[in-house]
Write a structure and sequence with these properties.
The protein is an alpha/beta fold. It contains twelve helices and 18 strands. It is elongated and about 90 Å long.
């Protein structure tokens, strides 16, 4: 009987602002990552994973519809597109905040206060954003919006379609450079920021924070339910999680005299238990361990007093295989 053909998994990765960090992560997770010039195809050293680059805004729906089994995108775009996917792993990069901002000369402290004042003066409030769904939902929850407009939905304006019935509060689709639009084109913006520097440079102030987000690995629910594909998806999760964890730890190897061994082990944190082995010279031991990177400088005085021959590596990956095993059993 011919061996059963292994399942192939289609993997969408983001082009654009998340692209560079995504490739760094892939290069830590796989031994070979190749991309041909001027193409959107990416090749890993695993023929069972078919990789293509897409815009992060497109990836949640593509994965939800089963065109891809897994993908990397911002958690913000999963919410914006209302995609029914499983966010299986926080990749801990691409951290952003989605905020409301308006010109710093405006006296309003919040968007709620702005909505109330514009409604009182019967002025049309114009907002620019790439996040049309998220912006609309946030605005509709504001107390002043409910008071003045009830259940009416803000008017969403794009070049192709207009949705919503409340012309007094409009959300205009932005195609980029959102921070440049106030005050001439719009009254305020709902946009992403990492540090707020670009907003301040454009004389804008942050009024409200709507959400925070980071890059996530997301999966199609039917693909996770398929036994063959699930095995390959768990391989991907294991490798990516290992790469994420790897940058948080250091691998230490050092020599210590027997009289200092117990005291050193008491002071040394460890991912599990250190490996201790006898050296060829009597009375000396080698200690092999993984520690949180943030603990390293605290340990230096103790290591300097009690140890010799310290070797430090940053691990490429730390694979928590037992965690995946528990997931498989459940």
């Amino acid at each position: 009987m011919a061996p059963k053909k292994a399942a192939q998994v289609r993997f969408a990765i983001p082009k654009g602002s998340l692209e560079a960090a995504t490739f760094k992560l892939l290069e830590r997770a796989w031994t070979k990552v190749n991309r041909k010039d001027r193409t959107y195809r990416v090749y890993l050293d695993d023929p069972g994973i078919i990789v293509k680059m897409l815009r992060p805004q497109e990836i949640p729906n593509m994965v939800a519809e089963g065109l891809y089994d897994v993908g990397i995108t911002g958690r913000d775009w999963v919410g914006e597109t209302d995609s029914d996917v499983d966010p299986v792993l926080d990749l801990e990069y691409g951290r952003i905040r989605l905020v409301v901002a308006f010109p710093d000369r405006y006296r309003y402290a919040t968007l709620d206060a702005m909505v109330a004042d514009y409604a009182k003066k019967k002025r049309t409030l114009r907002i620019s954003s790439e996040y049309l769904t998220t912006a609309s939902e946030f605005i509709r929850r504001l107390p002043s919006y409910k008071k003045h407009y009830g259940s009416k939905k803000p008017l969403i304006v794009t070049p192709w379609v207009r949705l919503g019935s409340n012309h007094m509060v409009q959300i205009h689709l932005s195609f980029g450079a959102t921070e440049a639009k106030p005050p001439e084109e719009v009254d305020c913006i709902i946009d992403v920021t990492e540090t707020g520097t670009t907003l301040r440079q454009n004389k804008l102030k942050i009024a409200d924070e709507i959400l925070t987000s980071s890059a996530h690995l997301i999966a199609n629910r039917d693909s996770l339910a398929d036994a063959a594909k699930r095995e390959k998806i768990y391989d991907i999760i294991t490798l990516l999680r290992g790469a994420v964890h790897g940058v948080k730890y250091l691998h230490l190897y050092l020599n210590v005299e027997e009289k200092n061994l117990e005291r050193l082990l008491r002071e040394m944190p460890s991912l599990k238990k250190p490996t201790v082995s006898s050296l060829s010279e009597p009375g000396w031991f080698g200690v092999n361990t993984i520690i949180p990177k943030e603990e390293f400088h605290r340990l230096i005085p103790a290591l300097r007093r009690m140890a010799q021959g310290l070797v430090v590596h940053e691990p490429r990956q730390i694979l928590e295989l037992e965690e995946i095993k528990r997931d498989e059993e459940n």
